[in-house]
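Collaborator request, handled under Task 6.
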Amino acid sequence: MDSQESQLAKYRKRHNKEYLKRKADAAGDIDGEKEAKAAKTTTGATSSGVSASASAAAAAAPAGPSQPTATDLDAFMTDEERRRKRQEEADHALAMQLSGEINIETDRRDERESQIERDEKLARDLFAKWQRADTSRETEKQDSNQQQHAGPSRRAVHIDRDEEWEWVRLVKATDVNRYDTEEVMTRGRQILDKEGDKAVIKEQLTQLAVEMGCLTGKWLIKFAPDQIAEAFDRVCEAMRQGMLGSAAKRSLEPKDNLHVICVYTRDFRDKGDVHRVLNALRAKGLAPLVGKEQPSNYISPSKSVTYKTDLYTIVGIYMGNPWQLPPTIYQSNSGEFRKYT
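Structure tokens returned to the collaborator:
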């Protein structure tokens, strides 16, 4: 583009020079014509003759410069300028072709890189899936070995921790409840906020627990810091012996200088099973007898223990709750749970 403008400027300059030269030549011709006519005519020549001659001279004068065409431009170029122009045009065409090819190759490279990223992600996902499958198979193998080593009258357990609790669970538990905790809490709070009769509220909460499958509950037993390790060892042993339910846990930090152990049952409505687990705890010296002297292996400072549903825990029914509901539903010293055999 810059080359064409430069060539155009050169052309205009050359063209203007020729125009001025032709104009000067025309002016000389006019002057010669005037002198010849002056010699041939008399002094009394009319002004009309002079005007006619002037008009003819004006008509003979060349027109002003016009916008040159590409053909005009080529006509005033030297051979070297034409050669350079053709070379520039060829170079420009080649550059445009190369630019298009580069863009196509860039698009292809981007597509290859995207495909590589997709393939790598797929490979990572498959590898993670295989790892999980291998881990699951290894865990099942270990659980099977533990169950075999436990013997026909003992059960394998698994012990782990979270931020607040140390848990012991049966390896192959079949009585685990599954429910939506958030929905249980939301609907439970709606029942509590009605502020109706307490007996009606308790019945509605029970119906919600049945509907949502939130049926688990636990005996709550408190121990001093120097008793908690021994107490939890007894709970683990009782689970291995098949005396308890499928899970239990102990607090990692004391509250009011006391730890708590929670021993779960599968269904708070099954009072027979709830009573059975309580008596197993009594046999291990972890829950108190009622109306009798405590055995020599008894280590809990509590005179009675209480039972609380998981639904009550989820909706926040604790001691001193704003709904003035009792936080537990059973007590070990009540009439229906006093008996120990």
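The cover message to the collaborator said: "Residues 42-52, 146-152 have pLDDT under 50 and may be disordered. The CA atoms of residues 305 and 332 lie 5 Å apart. Please let us know whether this matches your experimental observations."
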